[in-house]
Amino acid sequence: MGVLKAIHRAASVWTSPASPEDYLQIINPLASARQLRGVVTEVRRHGARSATISFRPGRGWEPHLAGQWARVGVEINGVRQWRSYSLSAAQGHDPEITVTAIGRVSRHLVEHTKTADVLFLAPPQGEFILPTGPRPLLMITAGSGITPVMSMLRTLIPRRPDADVVLIHSARNEDDALFIDELRTMDRQYAGLTVVIHFTGNNGRIDFSNASAVETVCPDWRSRKAYVCGPTELLDDTEKLWANAGLPQGLQVERFAPALLAPSDTDGGTITFAKSDKEAVCDGSTPILEVGEEAGVIMPSGCRMGICRTCLTPLVSGQVRDLRTGEIHADEGELIQTCITAAVGPVHLEV
Fold first, then answer.
1. Inter-residue contact 141 to 149 (CB < 8 Å)
2. Within a domain: residue 17?
3. SS3 29
4. Which of 110-119, 255-264, 271-280, 313-322 shows the lowest per-residue confidence on average (mean pLDDT)?
5. pLDDT at 260 over 80
């Protein structure tokens, strides 16, 4: 290690004022000691609104487990924006994300990403993963909630002849159904997978809070370990059903957004971002993280759900409300989670 440091110091004499890494990145865009990166190897379009982006990560990436997610960063108008995306590739393969063009960053990825582009990355994380031992499984997904489950199916089904998996996937229509051709092929090819695709545009939604409705598509749902990913309503309904059945431990959910209280019409105010010398007027229901990003402030962020605490920012003055619990935070110097708090009157932040 001492030899490497000596070589780095010697090289710095010739590259100053830039660092040796800055010159190395010209040759290898993944070479960075400061920021994990990945180079895009393929972009596959799924209609006009979705795309799968495959990438080869650089040094520091940890191989993902099926079902995990990772933070992905891109620069938009000179500001680096981060979002969390489920990894859809099978475990043991180079990672990929499947993105639907909803929101600024997702639209940018779908509409502008091309082969050889460089993405900023953080290592995979998340506990929405397959069980360690064989057991019957039930996967319930809707919309883009199929993404982490697709990684699970691609990992488990081809490798385990003893697999017993039922997938119930809801989509608005056939054009909006991600991976539909692959799912149908897997359903035909593997006896251990049963795929039920439900189009809500024609048939309405399945009431997953109703035991009889679930039994219609999966009679033995109570005996299966269940994984659910999709819109908040789906997650709330399934959690209610499994709790009423006395089986809360048999259900594992993956939320793309935190469960929030009803929006406030009375709160809000002006947020001053001290270090960035910017101000923004906001309502009482928009997270401070989103307000700052819209104003062009480089905000620390991670899961954007109040879990990872990457977004912690010192509160200089003012009051903020936790959008999940309604709790007010007003202590000077307190570290607040900007992804799940909103302003209550004028707020000054140390960012």
1. yes
2. yes
3. coil
4. 255-264
5. no
| Mean pLDDT, the chain, integer | 89
Two tokens, residue 261: 């209280």
Place of tokens 């001492």: 2
Neighbours of 283 (CB within 10 A): 15
Q: DSSP character for 153?
A: H
pTM as predicted? 0.79
Same domain, 301 and 332: yes
Q: How many CB atoms lie within 10 A of CB 247?
A: 16
C-alpha 345/C-alpha 115 separation (Å) is 45
Q: Which of these, 41, 49, 172, lies nearest to 111 by C-alpha position?
A: 49
Per-residue model confidence (pLDDT) at position 44: 96
**Where in 130-275 does DSSP place strands (E)?**
137-142, 165-171, 193-199, 225-229, 251-254, 268-273
What's the domain range around 120? 35-126
Mean pLDDT on 44-61: 93
Residue 259 within any structural domain of the chain: no
Domain end among 254, 285, 303: 254
pLDDT at residue 23 in the model: 47
Which amino acid belongs to residue 60?
A: G
What angle is formed at CA 310 by the lines to CA 101 and CA 61, rounded to 5 degrees?
A: 70
118-144: average pLDDT: 94
